[in-house]
């Protein structure tokens, strides 16, 4: 089973996409299952993980409705208010919903870089860990020190770093990012998504070689058993097509993967992590 571990849908008229603006014009329209299905068929993708793109429960409900009506959506990573005293009730309620398989706060968009360390958020993380529910870190390099502290505070957390933590690929910055990601990878219950990279590169001139040092470092640190392919469609359209994303990753990984490794990165690891 080939799995895209990271894609989005949205309906612009819902109105809770805070990032939607003329600066990202290509994204300012509806993207729904009928738009993605031909691309999945072309790239021989069987299932996807659908990830929230708005910080509201209404977004989570919208995605769960889509998942209920489309078999190719294996599960939904939703948003719940982790800094609310009501979080335990929310978690209990949504844990019972079919295809709700994980939680993602949009750390990259929260003004406080250390938000994840708020006392109530840490308590919420501990509840997530107790339920063995996947948690997703959407971060830039500057957030990684706080991610490390959170992982040390909640050692049982089963987590994944989205988009290799969005390093500054366009500016070819590696040093601090690579050091911090190596430390994150030492937590054996943490995975990493090979996703969202082309939008951190130069949108017009990127090539697979621009991604190569970041992919190879993540592969070295996390091993072939803890990385997974994600398209980040339709966000990827800012810099390239679904086909280009998949082809670029395959080109970079080809020297490093045998058939078993390719099966792991493009499906088995996601199936194991999300318990599909």
Topology record:
Elements: E1 3-7, H1 33-42, E2 47-51, H2 57-68, E3 73-78, H3 87-95, E4 100-103, H4 119-130, E5 135-137, H5 144-153, E6 159-161, H6 175-185, E7 190-194, H7 208-222, E8 227-229, H8 242-253, H9 259-273
Helix pairs in contact: 5-6, 6-7, 7-8
Structure description:
The structure is a single chain. The protein is an alpha/beta fold and 276 residues long. It has helices spanning 33-42, 57-68, 87-95, 119-130, 144-153, 175-185, 208-222, 242-253, 259-273; strands spanning 3-7, 47-51, 73-78, 100-103, 135-137, 159-161, 190-194, 227-229. The protein has a single domain (3-273), classed as Metal-dependent hydrolases (TIM Barrel), CATH 3.20.20.140. Helix content is 38%, strand content 12%. The chain has a 4-stranded parallel sheet. A 4-stranded parallel sheet has the order 5-6-7-8. Helix 6 links the parallel strand 6 (159-161) and strand 7. Helix 6 (175-185) packs parallel to helix 7 (208-222). The protein is globular and about 45 Å long.
Number of helices: 9
| Rounded average pLDDT | 97
What's the CATH topology label?
A: TIM Barrel
Order of helices and strands: EHEHEHEHEHEHEHEHH
If you compute it from the alpha carbons, what radius of gyration comes out, rounded to the nearest whole angstrom?
17 Å
Shape: globular
CATH architecture: Alpha-Beta Barrel
Judged by helices, strands and strand pairing, the structural class is alpha/beta
Question: Class, according to the CATH hierarchy?
Answer: Alpha Beta
User: Count the strands?
Assistant: 8
- Give the domain tally: 1
Helical coverage, percent range: 25-40%
Main sheet overview: 4 strands, parallel
* Corresponding CATH superfamily: Metal-dependent hydrolases
Strand content: 5-15%
Contiguous uncertain segments of 5+ residues: none
How do the strands of the widest beta sheet line up side by side?
1-2-3-4
Distance between the termini: 11 Å
């Amino acid at each position: 089973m080939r799995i895209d571990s990271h894609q989005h849908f949205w309906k612009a008229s819902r109105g809770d996409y805070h990032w939607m603006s003329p600066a990202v014009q290509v994204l300012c329209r509806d993207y729904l299952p009928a738009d993605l299905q031909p691309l999945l068929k072309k790239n021989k993708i069987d299932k996807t993980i659908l990830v929230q793109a708005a910080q509201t429960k209404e977004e989570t409900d919208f995605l769960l409705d889509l998942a209920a009506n489309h078999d190719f959506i294996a599960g939904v990573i939703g948003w719940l208010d982790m800094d609310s005293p009501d979080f335990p009730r929310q978690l209990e309620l949504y844990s019972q919903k079919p295809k709700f398989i994980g939680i993602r706060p949009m750390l990259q968009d929260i003004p406080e870089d250390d938000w994840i360390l708020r006392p109530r958020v840490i308590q919420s993380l501990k509840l997530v860990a107790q339920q063995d529910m996947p948690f997703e870190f959407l971060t830039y390099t500057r957030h990684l020190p706080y991610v490390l502290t959170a992982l040390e505070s909640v050692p049982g957390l089963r987590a994944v770093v989205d988009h290799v933590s969005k390093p500054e690929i366009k500016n070819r910055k590696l040093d601090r990012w690579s050091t911090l990601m190596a430390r994150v990878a030492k937590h054996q219950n943490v995975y990493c998504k090979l996703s969202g990279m082309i939008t951190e590169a130069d949108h017009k001139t990127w090539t697979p070689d621009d991604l190569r040092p970041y992919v190879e470092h993540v592969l070295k640190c996390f091993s072939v058993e803890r990385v997974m392919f994600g398209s980040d469609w339709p966000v990827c359209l800012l810099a390239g097509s679904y086909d280009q994303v998949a082809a670029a990753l395959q080109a970079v990984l080809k020297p490093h993967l045998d058939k078993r490794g390719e099966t792991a990165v493009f499906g088995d690891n996601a199936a194991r992590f999300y318990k599909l």
